[in-house]
Design brief:
heterotrimer; A alpha/beta (250); B mainly alpha (321); C mainly alpha (288); B: 321 residues; mainly alpha; ABC transporter involved in vitamin B12 uptake, BtuC; two-stranded antiparallel ribbon; 14 helices; 76% helix; globular; C: 288 residues; 3% strand
Chain lengths: 250, 321, 288
């Protein structure tokens, strides 16, 4: 299968710190890939580098067969890659509807503000936010804002979607709801990269898992393989969890 | 909910009718000034209000427009062509300048934009062969009839500039560009991530802003028939439009115009009588205005008035919870 | 040989320029306010020194710290009453507020002191220090020396005293600083006052060399901008480097283009820097 996204030798340095070291991997269309790792491992840095928010120090990124190395983040967004932010970034004084409509207008293919708003309503309905369409984005609760982030990124009609800690700060019920949305999105053909710290989510939802540690990729395989991986256990999971996860999987 | 803004257009039209009838020279001169500042405030609002980039370049564009039009006319070009050429040349200049400095944010952008006017002023001062240097430039007088007819003509010309400015501002606000600028103003990083070409949007707004200010400067030069660098590149020409926009509502379509009318009305009624300390009083007004707008005045009644005003004059496209 | 003389003339102003910009840089770095009022404060300091010399015969080089002290009080009060109210707001607000205050102060000075230029004349005149074939005006040498001294004291203050550490803390993380008992409002006001002190002191030094008038306030503000951007914002070594750099650039600029263009040259330099290297020659951020 042709790789949707390919990274070759991606390195990111900030001053004296090397946040990402020579990352090499590829993603296929239709995968749901989990990215895990301790804090500071470089997960968000990776997303920032791929989506053009920060300039890579070295390496190449290829999307759908063409190089997107060095492109600006707005160019990459228009090419079909979307991402959510860990610390949500709405347009605070615009309505929830307009927040999503803006995304549809600029990268989602809508030609006029009115068409964009119509598109936006659909996405809001999907994410369960249609009741709040006319409220200012700043008035939403955290869970609401996370869903708004999701709706905005969907409005971009992405083929690749990076979800950065969508579940941080949500209670179990909200997490369940978010997961079912994610699975519906995947079913519609979008390739998803899930940056997560909740192992339960990763093990149950992802077809593949990548583990980052100090900017390096230390494991890349099915959830079962990763959970059993020595290096991963050492760096991240702890022996007890690994045993429990293995027992649950068999 | 009735917004003050909706009454502006009919009120203005009524006023205009009255003016054309009245045709008193002094009133006409005052009205021409109002139109000029309405245009300048609207021009600033495109980049400072819609996009949220605090530009101090208005004086640079205005002065450049004045000089380009002036120099073209002293070389024989008819005023109509000179004015048009000036507006477009200044827009081009603004576009190029924008590409150079719009990647800067906050204070750095403000300073860079402020300094441009000073540099242009010095260049005009030194390039005596072209601009007459510090001794100024005399424009050829247009044969327009008696003093009254001249006053009417320049009022009409400046009015056209103001109306064009307003139409442009209104159109931008509803267009895709307006959406882009709004997104940039509220969260530029988020705007990029949803596909807004921020650089292009900002540069376009800056260029349009230059077009308007340049046109105003060009008409001004013909109106006063004599310009010099300190006059047309004065920093106050950058600051007063900002104050007017602040007064009337930054980021709205008609706010800058309302602000211009209120400010100049105040100036006319109060300060003409205090010629000597005029600028000092302006300083006090500015301080009070900023304190008021940032909710800094703690009087309860003032606070309520402030909240009410903000809901009436809030930015376009904004929702107040 | 003439180049050496020009270089020396430029260096001779470096310390004074550093002093002019240090207060501005402090306020910008700590409070994130571009203090448009700075130029006028310098002129006010200059006038205080002028009148001190005129009526009481006090030497401006000696008066500098005292004039500074008076302005410190003014600055502290201004920050505590007016400026703190707009501190969290958008750049536009703080710029416009300090612009308004600047307009007010400039016009107050114009009203009371008139626009004509005043000059402190020393009797006997300070003259020129001969260094072989080269010469340095003594007034400039003294101004630079005292200026550097004052900047040095500021640097020590920031590094060693509790107050200095409070300023750095508040700049780095306001909330944590407050939680740790730093009196944030008071610290901000002290920082602004300190900036005003530097302005007042440098004004006194200036008055010893150049003619003064309220109309010159913009030029000094401009120099402060350029020095801050040249040397990198928020560091004392940066300000010193920037001050000497500007002195030299102006000196050679005057040689090449004449004195009227000195300011324009600085502004062109400023724009160039902002476009390509806004973090300045030393590229440091955060106050040290």
């Amino acid at each position: 299968m042709n790789a949707l996204l390919e990274l070759k030798g991606v390195t990111q340095r900030f001053g004296g710190i090397t946040a990402l070291q020579q990352l090499d991997f590829s993603l296929g269309q239709g995968e749901i890939v989990g990215v895990i790792g301790p804090n500071g491992a470089g997960k968000t840095t990776l997303v920032n580098a791929v989506t053009g928010v920060t300039r890579m120090s070295a390496g190449e990124v290829w999307f759908e067969g063409r190089s997107i190395t060095g492109l600006r983040s707005d160019q990459i967004a228009r090419l079909g890659i979307a991402r959510t932010f860990q610390i949500v970034q709405p347009f605070p004084r615009m309505s929830v509807l307009d927040n999503v409509a803006a995304a549809a207008l600029f990268a989602g293919g809508s030609r006029t503000p009115d068409a964009a708003r119509e598109q936006a309503r659909e996405h809001l309905r999907f994410c369960g936010l249609d009741a709040q369409a006319d409220k200012p984005a700043a008035a939403l609760t955290l869970a609401g804002r996370k869903r708004l982030e999701l709706a905005k990124s969907l409005a971009l009609k992405p083929r690749l979607l990076f979800l950065d800690e969508v579940n941080a700060g949500l209670n179990p019920a909200e997490v369940e709801h978010a997961l079912s949305l994610i699975q519906q999105i995947a079913a519609s053909g979008v390739t998803i990269v899930l940056i997560e710290h909740l192992m339960k989510v990763v093990v149950n939802s992802c077809t593949r898992v990548m583990v980052l540690h100090q900017g390096q990729l230390i494991a890349n395989g099915t959830p079962q393989e990763v959970v059993a991986n020595e290096k991963v256990i050492e760096a991240y999971l702890g022996q007890r969890y690994a045993r429990r996860a293995q027992e649950a999987a068999t | 909910m009735m917004k003050v803004r909706n009454f502006v257009i009919p009120a203005v039209l009524a006023l205009l009718g009255l003016l054309a009838w009245q045709a008193d020279n002094y009133v006409l001169r005052l009205s021409t000034t109002v139109c000029m500042y309405a245009a300048l405030a609207t021009s600033w609002n495109l980049i400072g209000g819609y996009a949220g980039y605090p530009s101090f370049a208005t004086a640079a564009f205005f002065g450049l427009g004045a000089y380009v039009a002036g120099v073209l006319q002293t070389h024989g070009l008819a005023f109509g062509w000179a004015w048009t050429a000036a507006a477009f040349l200044v827009a081009l200049f603004a576009g190029l300048l924008g590409r150079a400095i719009l990647h800067l944010r906050g204070h750095y952008f403000a300073i860079a934009s402020l300094v441009v006017a000073d540099v242009l002023r010095e260049v005009s001062n030194s390039w005596t062969s072209l601009t007459g240097g510090g001794m100024g430039l005399n424009l050829p007088l247009l044969k327009l009839g008696n003093v009254n007819q001249q006053a009417l003509f320049y009022f009409a010309a400046m009015l056209v500039v103001a109306v064009l400015a307003l139409l442009l501002s209104w159109h931008v606000n509803r267009s895709r560009l307006g959406w882009a600028l709004r997104c940039i103003e509220q969260n530029e990083d988020a705007a990029l991530v949803i596909g807004v070409d921020a650089r292009r949007a900002k540069v376009t707004a800056f260029a349009l802003s230059g077009w308007i200010a340049g046109a105003a400067g060009a008409v001004y030069a013909s109106w006063v028939t004599y310009i010099d660098p300190t006059d047309v590149f004065d920093t106050l020409l950058s600051v007063k439009p900002i104050i007017m926009a602040l007064l009337g509502g930054v980021g709205t379509v008609t706010g800058p115009v309302i602000g211009a009318v209120v400010y100049l009305g105040l100036e006319e009624l109060l300060w003409r009588n205090v010629l000597e300390f005029h600028a000092g009083l302006l300083g006090i007004l500015v301080v009070l205005l900023v304190l008021f707008l940032s909710g800094g005045l703690h009087d309860a009644r003032l606070q309520r008035a402030y909240v009410w005003l903000r809901s009436r004059l809030g930015r376009q496209g904004e929702v107040n919870a | 040989m003439i180049y050496l003389q020009v270089l020396l003339s430029g260096l001779a102003l470096g310390g004074l320029y550093a002093c002019i910009a240090a207060g501005f840089s402090l306020i910008w770095g700590v409070l994130n306010i571009v203090n448009i009022l700075h130029g006028s404060l310098i002129i006010l300091g200059a006038y205080l020194a002028y009148f001190a010399h005129q009526f009481y015969g006090i030497n401006p080089f000696v008066f500098a710290p005292f004039g500074g002290l008076l302005l410190f009080v003014l600055g502290y009060v201004l920050q505590r009453t007016l400026i703190k109210r707009v501190m969290g707001e958008a750049v536009l607000m703080t710029l416009t507020l300090t612009f308004g205050l600047n307009l007010l102060l400039d016009n107050l000075m114009l009203k009371f002191f008139r626009a004509d230029f005043r000059k402190i004349t020393f009797d006997p005149p300070l003259g020129i220090l001969d260094l072989g074939p080269l010469g340095v005006p003594v007034d400039r040498l003294l101004a630079t020396g005292v200026g550097l001294l004052i900047v040095g004291v500021l640097w020590l203050l920031l590094r060693t005293t509790q107050f200095g550490r409070a300023i750095v803390a508040v700049r780095m993380d306001r909330q944590t600083a407050a939680l740790m008992g730093v009196r944030v409002d008071h610290t901000y006001a002290l920082a602004f006052g300190l900036g005003a002190f530097m302005a007042g002191a440098s004004g006194a030094l200036l008055a010893a060399i150049f003619p003064i008038s309220p109309v010159a306030s913009g030029a000094y503000l401009g120099k402060a901008f350029v020095i801050c951007v040249l040397g990198g914002l928020g560091s004392v070594p940066g300000v010193v480097l920037g001050g000497f750099a500007l002195g030299i650039i102006e000196s050679f600029g005057t040689l090449a283009f004449g004195p009227e263009h000195a300011l324009t040259l600085s502004f062109l330099l400023l724009i160039g820097l902002l476009m390509f290297r806004p973090s300045g020659l030393l590229g440091r951020r955060g106050f040290q």
